[in-house]
Amino acid sequence: MSDAKQGWLAFALKTLISSGPDALTIDRLCARKKVTKGSFYHHFKNRQAFIDALMTYWYEQATTRLIAIADTQPCPLTRLERLDEAIAATDIEAELHIRAWALKDASIQHHLCTIDTQRQHYLKTCYLELGLDQTRAEHLATTSYASFLGLQQLYPRLSVQDCLALSSQQAKTQLKELL
Fold first, then answer.
1. Which residues contact 29 (CB under 8 A, 6 or more apart)?
2. Can you tell me the distance from the alpha carbon of 21 to that of 29, in angstroms, rounded to the nearest whole number?
3. Which of 15, 24, 52, 115 has its C-alpha lying 20 to 30 A from 7's C-alpha?
4. Which domain holds residue 135?
5. Domain tally for the chain?
6. Which residue in 59, 112, 63 sits closest to 83, CA to CA?
């Protein structure tokens, strides 16, 4: 992906965070970026291609990249700890806005389904390697992931580090009980 296209996508995520999904129209993005529509169309065929590219970009930044960082560790428990460290070191603010957007947009729901499935599969794989059976690994992956997502929804807002610490503590407690 070209630097210019990546710049568009990073700009769009910042715009989503600051102004919501309604600001992600071609006209509004070009006006905010102070460029012509030709600049947009040079990188994206249409708005849906842009949205798909944006979600792919976010998936690569907030899922694939973080899993790759965790996968540098040989032990599944260490991989899970490294994953938490990588998440804590990443700006995940866009996550909340994308999830809110998905409530109104089926194409975003589709992307989130893919992303959530991938993330839970990764957790499940780690739990399987730690010795849980298929069903228990799947259940723990679902509950630990849901715990992390749910903690991010609380007000007053918890830091990402606190969300990770609490969801990790809950998962480790369940893991000990299940092994």
1. 8, 11, 12, 15, 23, 40
2. 11
3. 115
4. 54-178
5. 1
6. 63
- Claim: this prediction has a pTM higher than 0.85: yes
Residue-wise pLDDT tens digits, 74-117: 999 999 999 999 999 999 999 999 999 999 999 999 999 999 99
In a domain, 59, yes or no: yes
Read off the tokens for 6: 């990546």
Cα distance between residue 31 and residue 40, in whole Å: 11
- Of 166, 128, 129, 159, whose CA–CA distance to 144 is shortest? 166
